[in-house]
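User: I'm putting together a small comparison set for a docking exercise, and I want a reference complex before I start. The sequence is below, and the ligand is zinc ion. Could you produce the 3D structure with the ligand included, as structure tokens?
Assistant: Of course. I'll restate your input first, then give the structure tokens for the complex.
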Amino acid sequence: MPDAETTDTVRIDELTWPELEALTKAGPPVVIIPVGSLEQHGPHMALGVDRVLPQAVAERVAARMGALVAPAVAYGYKSQPKSGGGNHFPGCASLDGDTLVRLVRDVICDFARHGLTRIALFNGHMENGWFLTEAADLALRQMIAEGVSGVRIVKLGYWDFISPETEATLFPHGRPTWELEHAAVMETSCMLHLAPGMVRADLIPDDPEADFPPYEIFPADLRPIPPTGVLAPAGSASADKGRAVIEQVVPDIAAALARAFTE
Ligand code: ZN
Ligand code: MN
């Protein structure tokens, strides 16, 4: 944990190198890397939702458990129609898969070379999933080749920690698949709680759930994509629901990380 006498930040980019070196020598803190995207989130939310949410969760988890938060990766893999509305919406600026893999791999490797061998990837964008797995795998392979031992990487999506009780609060009438929850009740609620200035509450759509066929076409068939870019009804979002999510997942993720890095 950062020494309260020298710093009260959990952000690694706000530390000096001697401060970071001292923390590392005291027993390397977990370094959380939030990974997001720049992606449309409907007419009612800003493009940065997928970075803002995992970073906010990361900062709260880090403060709780004495971890550090690295600068977020603000770009992600291409938005897909069935999980993000598609990369054709204005503002979707995305990475090729190998760019994302190499970016995350390179950052993990440099932290590990400096003794920060406990890395947590906090994903905020569904489409990043397997590329983060690949980045972790290639980083481990590289560190083994260089003789850097003890590297452990945990990958998670904060939404996977939402308990059945919190889910019942969010979706009293049942929820769509998590993929269709794009820019809908969960994300909108969390943003209303954490970053209300990035939400236009008067523009929250409440259109029915998108109806996609059980396959994908390349180039994408745009017809089943709701014109708003929101894939499920969002009208029941609220700041109270967002607070319920954040207050439940933060301690649960902190406990899970503590386990994952000690077992
Ligand atoms: Zn999102
Ligand atoms: Mn996304």
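The chain has a mean pLDDT of 96. The first helix runs from residue 17 to 25.
User: Thanks, that's exactly what I needed.
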